[in-house]
Write a structure and sequence with these properties.
heterodimer; A: alpha+beta; Ubiquitin-like (UB roll); DNA polymerase, domain 1; 2 domains; five-stranded mixed sheet; 5 helices; B: alpha+beta; Aldehyde Oxidoreductase, domain 4; seven-stranded mixed sheet; 28% helix
Chain lengths: 157, 706
């Protein structure tokens, strides 16, 4: 057993594991019970498992937990709540941006990272920033509109 | 007076208590046999129920997809949930409301026509009576059959239906809640992966258990019955690693190795087939008319759901409980009963949401895997989640299709005789249709299965879906060659044969228009008397500011296409604008759709948009590759359209608040989008591409041939 210490959504966590190569995604879902980050491929291809690691968007389905030690992880659960939604979550609700919703956790995280780096992205820049996230239902245009809307709200526009 | 006929699903499940109950003051529960697949059906059902019962939508909870105490509506498929299931829900609620009104009238010694309902409370001439659904409910027996006598609301009296309603399932998905089957945890649950039998008939040779255990880096156990081999353990990471490693450490005999040749639709011709002729025989001579013939092909497509399939099961005290994200819990229960030799009454199947499926993906098979393991480990709850590669390789594929269109053309340039000759595998590989679940191929002592039947034309057809043009053509026929053995397992994907058939038919119409020297919009209108068809074509042309006879061939083009889905659901016309050099870039898509009365306009638009994008992805990117096995096994080897490749899309609904019956919209745009892209590429390049997908390689080859 080896212990790994890091923080998730601002709270320190400590996890004891036999396999130090356990992907961060498995730790979030199976050890910490945070099911909002989804498994899509295990190959870092689809973006369902996107989280922020020290603010940078990273796919965590194949990222060993050992390299997360001491870092800060933000998951979709760290964005907002139904009573106090993050502007992105509110904009996605307003635009009804989603169908099955399986990809949305990862897309919200990618969008959050984009808006932190670029508060006024063009639609093309948003699309490019989301190219690492696959949406199979075809809600792309609603999602782009929602991110634009959230950006405007966050700028105070 | 004759009893009115009930809507199909209500006729099949007539007891009203299967549909509606009033479990607690202020609460209404309605049950639907339709399941949430991301299409927003539960929201739409709540709108229908709230209107017919005269209650606020917030009072209505929609339960769905359990094999106990709920209507059996078969599969949630074919854009039929609103067109048929919604009709049944509406009539059931109207009948329930009428029973309550009659009862209240007796208590109040007044006429039923003196009473009205407002948010569940009963009023007489506008004055409160002190009665509501919940006070009256104990006195009313809902275990009676629907009469179908109650009148449905007139469209002018609808408050919720026809208004865009926020999806009830979306908030939980945006806050990362445990909404998906993948997120379910049962006490004492073990994780599992199946060591997948490469193909039907393959047998286990050797198993290097030690190597697999080493790869797992944690405790695992093997569970086996015949050629069904599974890995089970408490730790999902270990089980996943073992599952991945098992591919290289278990050998099989009788392994099939499909070749790249077999991935193309041309391979289907000359295969064993079951032939059918629908319509009059084809004339043997051209009767002095001009002949047209062209061949269009499409390869195998994957559903490529964003999440691999998942299933949970527990066999406890002689009862099997299964959780699945499949499209039909009742048909799955029947197939499980057969596979496990268990009476169906000993099985309960629950639907839990998964990712979008767009048809028959791996969901049923994953549930069967979990059930098979659970039967071998009584008492232990089992959760299986397929690996990504497993989903791509083993989900049933949409069959490759080859469609030959032959037409005889009158002197005025219009077709008078039309033949669609189709080669295709079966689009109905669902477990309820006489097909095996994957585990059933590997388990011992399985009963032989009956020959699976293609979806009958009365239900819209499978390979023949939309092969019959809606245009005014004197003589039409379909020649259907059902290819009985395909190199990959095949089944239903969004629209079944509609996408390849509409692609073929609507490209052929453009080719005929070009021969006749008539603009494609004008040509379609000249051979269409169906007013609703004309309306969507005219509307989309206006939206796109369609310029008749616009010059093409300079790398930028526009195309139009039209279809009425299944020739009985929604009418949809699509215009696509694109650019082509080595690759295709979609610039804009316009779509006009007449789906009759639309329950949730924003929900319908979301579905239509999704259909446009999925079809564009099929056209530009998607084909399952075969090379010694299924060579499309991840998102690199089976790419789909990305955010930066999706064009702006404008959608218009025609008469969405009309009193016309609701028509299914979910699959209406797939065919027209495909053909509009095909026609736009032809317009842009001046050459016709008839083989899909329209990849860079195909475009380059066509340009070089010129």
């Amino acid at each position: 057993m080896k212990t790994f210490d890091f923080s998730v959504n601002g709270k320190p966590v400590s996890v004891a594991l036999h396999n130090e190569d356990t992907p961060l995604l498995d730790v979030l879902r199976n050890e910490l019970g945070l099911m909002g980050t989804r498994f899509g491929c295990g190959l870092e291809q689809c973006g369902c498992c996107m989280v922020l690691i020290d603010g940078a968007p990273e796919k965590c389905c194949a990222r060993p937990v050992s390299i997360i030690t001491g870092k800060n992880v933000t998951t979709v659960e760290g964005l907002g709540t139904p009573d106090a939604p993050h502007p992105l979550q509110q904009a996605f609700l307003d635009e009804q941006a989603g169908q099955c919703g399986y990809c949305l956790s990862g897309i919200l995280i990618s969008a959050k990272a984009l808006l932190a780096a670029n508060p006024s992205p063009t639609r093309a820049q948003i699309a490019l920033a989301l190219d690492g996230n696959i949406c199979r239902c075809g809600s792309h245009n609603r999602i782009l509109r929602a991110v634009e809307k959230a950006a405007a709200v966050m700028r105070g526009a | 007076m004759n009893a009115p006929s009930l809507p199909g699903p209500l006729n099949d499940n007539p007891r009203l208590d299967l549909w509606v109950s009033f479990p607690a003051p202020g609460k209404v529960v309605v049950n639907t046999g339709r399941v949430e697949l991301g299409q927003g059906v539960l929201t739409a059902m709540a709108q229908v129920a709230a209107d017919e019962l005269d209650v606020a939508m917030t009072r209505v909870s929609v339960r769905s997809g359990v094999t106990d105490g709920m209507p059996n509506e078969g599969y949630t498929a074919g854009s039929q949930s609103i067109q048929f299931g919604g009709l049944a829900m509406g009539q059931a609620c109207a009948d329930v409301r009428a029973l309550f009104i009659d009862h209240a009238a007796r208590i109040l010694a007044c006429g039923a026509n003196e009473l009205s309902v407002r948010d569940g409370a009963f009023f007489r001439h506008g004055a409160a009576t002190g009665h509501d659904y919940w006070t009256l409910a104990p006195a009313i027996d809902l275990s009676v059959n629907a009469s179908g006598l109650a009148r449905r609301k007139a469209s002018a009296d609808l408050r919720f239906v026809g208004q865009s309603s926020a999806r009830t399932d979306l908030p939980a998905k945006l806050f990362g809640d445990d909404v998906f089957i993948h997120d379910m945890k049962l006490a004492g649950m073990k994780h599992a992966r199946v060591v997948r039998q490469p193909n039907k008939g393959a047998c286990i040779g050797t198993i290097d258990e030690a190597a697999i255990r080493r790869a797992a880096k944690g405790a695992i156990e093997f569970v086996r019955s015949g050629d069904f081999l599974a890995i089970v353990g408490d730790n999902e990471t270990a089980v996943e690693l073992a599952g991945g490693a098992s591919v290289n450490h278990v050998t099989w005999t009788n392994v099939e190795t499909p070749t790249p040749l077999q991935q193309e639709a041309n391979w289907l011709v000359q295969r064993p087939v079951i032939d059918r002729l629908l319509g009059p025989p084809e004339p043997s001579d051209a009767q002095g008319k001009q002949r047209f013939e062209a061949t269009y092909t499409r390869g195998y497509l994957a559903h490529a759901s964003i999440s691999p399939s998942c299933g949970l099961a527990q066999f406890k005290d002689g009862h099997l409980t299964v959780w699945t994200h499949c499209q039909g819990v009742f048909p799955l229960r029947g197939a499980l009963a057969r596979m496990l030799k268990l009476d169906a009454s000993k099985i309960t199947v629950h639907h839990v949401q998964g990712s979008g499926c767009y048809g028959h993906n791996g969901a049923d098979d994953a549930a069967a895997d979990a059930a098979a393991i659970a039967m071998l480990m009584p008492g232990t709850p089992i959760r299986i989640r397929w690996r990504r590669e497993e989903e791509f390789i083993f989900e049933p594929k949409s069959p490759a299709m080859l469609v030959k269109v032959r037409a005889l053309v009158d002197a005025d340039g219009k077709p008078s005789d039309w033949t669609a000759e189709i080669w295709s595998g079966n689009h109905n590989g669902r477990p309820g249709g006489g097909n095996a679940l994957l585990a059933g191929y590997a388990l011992p002592d399985q009963e032989p299965l009956p020959q699976a039947n293609e979806v009958p034309e009365a239900a819209g057809g499978g390979a023949t879906r939309n092969a019959d043009p809606l245009y005014d053509i004197a003589d039409k026929r379909i020649i259907h060659h059902m290819v009985t053995e395909t190199p990959v397992r095949v089944s239903a994907l969004r629209g079944l044969g509609a996408m390849p058939n509409v692609f073929a038919l609507e490209c052929a119409i453009d080719e005929l228009a070009e021969r006749a020297g008539v603009d494609p919009v004008a040509y379609r209108l000249a051979i269409t008397t169906d007013m609703r068809a004309r309306a969507v074509i005219e509307k989309v042309a206006a939206m796109a500011n369609w310029q008749a006879n616009a010059p093409g061939g300079n790398g930028a083009g526009r195309g139009i296409a039209f279809a009425r889905y299944k020739n009985r659901a929604a009418y949809s016309a699509v215009v696509v604008e694109l650019e082509v050099d080595e690759e295709i870039r979609l610039r804009h898509v316009w779509c006009a759709t007449d789906g009759g009365l639309i329950v949730n306009p924003d929900g319908a638009i979301n579905q239509l948009e999704g259909g446009v994008i999925q079809s564009a992805s099929w056209m530009l990117r998607e084909q399952v590759r075969l090379d010694g096995g299924t060579a499309s096994f991840d998102w690199d080897t089976y790419p789909v359209l990305k955010f930066s490749e999706v064009p702006p899309i404008d959608i218009a609904l025609i008469n969405p608040t009309s009193s016309d019956m609701p028509l299914g919209v979910g699959e209406a745009t797939a065919g027209p989008t495909a053909a509009a892209i095909g026609n736009a590429v032809s317009h842009a390049l001046g050459i016709r591409l008839r083989d899909l997908p329209l990849t860079r390689e195909r475009i380059m080859a066509a340009l070089l041939q010129e």
